[in-house]
Design the sequence.
């Protein structure tokens, strides 16, 4: 089997989906804006079709890429999984184009951002509008719901509010507050200047806050 074929990648994906958090926060994960020597070496091996390098790439970054995509597609797990697979397949096939002028995760997130944009453009789709009333359960005599239900509702309402934002606002907020990326790295992912990203974040926070409050009050 061609180790860089979609079928091989799907086999790899299914075998190593469960990741431990220590992989995601290994030394150097958040330091610097250029590829580390280890990342450069990994991509060199990947460009030479080393299947062990492909497995290492997926094990090390799949969870973060999936999380980033998940928040961009309204928490639809199936879509997030499909787009994550597409992202890594594109990375495997395009490894020879990695120049090392950004961190490896930044490069992967940039690919993912393009896949997300393609996802919404395909079949002329737009992020679904979530009716405001969907976030207000039917009247109940129980005024003290379990805490986990309240937390779940808040998460769903946050997700609904994110979906109402323009795509570049949503991307900036997820990268900054979910992935905790510095502005300079977000600029690399979004292919914008740091000053532009700062402006986007300011506007995105204001719009998100207003949207969330309107949902809460309606």
Sequence:
């Amino acid at each position: 089997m061609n180790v860089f074929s979609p079928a091989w990648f799907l086999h790899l994906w299914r075998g190593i989906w469960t990741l431990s958090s220590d992989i995601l926060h290994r030394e150097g994960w958040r330091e610097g804006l250029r590829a580390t020597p280890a990342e450069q070496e990994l991509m060199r091996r990947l460009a030479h079709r080393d299947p062990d390098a492909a497995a290492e790439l997926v094990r090390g970054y799949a969870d973060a890429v999936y999380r980033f995509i998940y928040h961009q597609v309204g928490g639809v797990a199936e879509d997030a999984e499909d787009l994550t697979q597409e992202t890594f397949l594109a990375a495997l096939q395009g490894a020879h184009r990695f120049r090392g002028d950004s961190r490896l995760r930044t490069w992967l997130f940039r690919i993912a951002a393009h896949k997300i944009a393609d996802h919404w453009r395909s079949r002329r789709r737009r992020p679904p509008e979530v009716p405001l009333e969907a976030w207000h359960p039917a009247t109940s005599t129980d005024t003290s719901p379990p805490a986990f239900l309240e937390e779940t509702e808040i998460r769903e309402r946050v997700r609904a509010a994110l979906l109402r934002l323009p795509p570049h606002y949503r991307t900036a907020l997820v990268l900054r507050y979910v992935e905790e990326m510095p502005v300079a790295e977000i600029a690399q992912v979004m292919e914008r200047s740091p000053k532009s990203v700062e402006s986007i974040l300011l506007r995105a926070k204001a719009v998100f806050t207003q949207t969330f409050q309107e949902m809460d009050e309606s």
Residues 22 and 136 are 37 Å apart (CA to CA). The chain has ten helices and no strands. The chain has a mean pLDDT of 78. The chain has two domains: 1-127, 130-218.
